[in-house]
Amino acid sequence: MVVEEIIASGPIIINEGKLLVDKDDKDDFYKLPGGRLKENESLDETCIREAWEEVNADIIIIKKLSTLILNRNPTTHKKMRIELHHYLADLNNLNEIKPVHPIKEIKWLDIKEIKRGKYNVAPNIKFLVEKGEIK
After folding, report:
1. pTM score > 0.90 for this model?
2. What does R_g of the chain's alpha carbons equal in angstroms?
3. CA 50/CA 115 separation, integer angstroms
4. Does residue 31 belong to any structural domain of this protein?
């Protein structure tokens, strides 16, 4: 049996102790801007493109962070392989950040409050907080 596979990439953008996240109609949790790798595109190119497409963010990648591999979709619980690549990034256009359709909302979540479990966040955000890569 062939298992569906998703390879995705997205930025970790932190400003004044807060993490940039977004939300759409697909999931009931906050997640990082990001999305699927396109053919002939590198993971860092995907990260930059997706940040622009989802939240109008012009970013510069600082460094690669840990990759999370999931064996189930966190929303549907369908068995699949999801490979999530993360990059710490600087934001060049803070005042121009806005949700781009189909994104419904963007928010800056206080990292201390994320650690205390105040927000419903995606598994990869919890993973990176636990690893100390979002701090």
Report:
1. yes
2. 14
3. 25
4. yes
